[in-house]
Amino acid sequence: MAGVVGNQELRRPAVLALRTLAVATCYYAAGRLGLLCRLTVEGAVFTPVYPSTGVALACLLVFGLGCWPGITLGALFLVLSLGAPGPDAVGILLGNTAGPVCAYLMLRRVGFRPDLSRLRDGLALVFLGALAAMVISSGIDVVTLILAGKLDTTHFWPIWLAWWVGDAMGVLIVTPVLLVLFETRGPPSLARWKEVLALAAVAAVLVPVATHSSLSALFLVYPLLIWAALRFRLAGSMLCALFASVTATVAATDGVGAFARLSPVGVMLKLQLFNGSLALTALLLSAVITEQHNTRRSVAEACKELAEVLEHLTAHDSPAGRAPPEAAEPRSERGTR
């Protein structure tokens, strides 16, 4: 017995270390992917969609608050990969850790469910996890860079807005996808693979055309998003939203299609409005559809249980379920007849 307890005590630090390293690796990899597409606003370089914030919040929601050292470690790896760190690195690490942690605490406070099966969960993720909490991370990061002399104070608000929206888009687009992948128990049934392949084929053709066409046809993405939400709910809609957001971000950084001949600020505003409306539509529409599906299923189960109860009561009250009248009479009376 003592040996088992000792093995468990030794296993816990090992599991914690491996989990911390895994979270740090995922955070660093997501950050490097996000840095592949960058925009410049008032001389400051930022990522329109910073996926590391989405990865950090998803890890907190899945593994709990104890994985925050992995977020800090991943942010440190990312800072070191960009060059020799200075005193401002401490503020960057603080901001990148504080934002997701505050988002996690606020979501836990309102009873958030990671399966996003209710409309209130989608609204909480949007307004608390993305819009409110990322004010903290972006504010700390931008103030740190200003104090370090790397940013001009006269352009604080445009830079902060671009930083804040990039962090918020990471939560809105990346976090739901990771939560869906974690909650998924298996692939779709064989009967639905044809529709899955059809949806993927249409998305592979329609999304690049909509984002890279000079006709500014970004609106063509929304019917595809509605189809995915109606048929595959959160998994389909968020994967389509992620693909459309990445494709639009590439077009924006290249300055082609719907983002051609725009100023840097105009590119940033148009891209983030598209990404924001895309994520909100996918998240809230799929949450409403899932909630209605769960409500119908609950009503159907309640009706089935009620029918079983009525059938049971009817069986007891039927003539076949009752004893014959003479069987219920006293023996003495039957003998006198």
Short description:
With about 325 residues, the protein is mostly helical. The protein has helices at about 1-35, 50-65, 70-80, 90-110, 120-145, 155-185, 195-210, 220-255, 265-315, 330-335, and strands at about 40, 45.
3D architecture notes:
The relative contact order is 0.10. It is built from ten helices and two strands; from the N terminus they run H-E-E-H-H-H-H-H-H-H-H-H. It has a two-stranded antiparallel sheet with strand order 1-2. Helix 5 crosses helix 6. Helices cover 75% and strands 2% of the residues. The protein is mainly α. The protein has two domains: 1-186, Arp2/3 complex 21 kDa subunit ARPC3 (Orthogonal Bundle), CATH 1.10.1760; 187-316, no CATH class.
Features:
single chain, 337 residues, mainly alpha, Arp2/3 complex 21 kDa subunit ARPC3, 2 domains, two-stranded antiparallel sheet, 10 helices, 2 strands, 75% helix, globular, disordered N terminus, disordered C terminus, MASE1, MASE1 domain-containing protein
User: Order of strands in the sheet with the most strands?
Assistant: 1-2
Helix content estimate:
over 70%
Count up the domains.
2
CATH architecture label of the largest domain: Orthogonal Bundle
Keywords: Cell membrane, Membrane, Transmembrane, Transmembrane helix
Main location: membrane
Pfam family, one: MASE1
Subcellular location: Cell membrane
Secondary structure topology:
Elements: H1 2-34, E1 39-41, E2 44-46, H2 51-63, H3 68-82, H4 88-109, H5 119-147, H6 156-183, H7 193-212, H8 221-254, H9 264-317, H10 331-335
Antiparallel strand pairs: 1-2
Helix pairs in contact: 1-2, 1-3, 2-4, 2-6, 3-4, 4-5, 5-6, 5-9, 6-8, 6-9, 7-8, 8-9
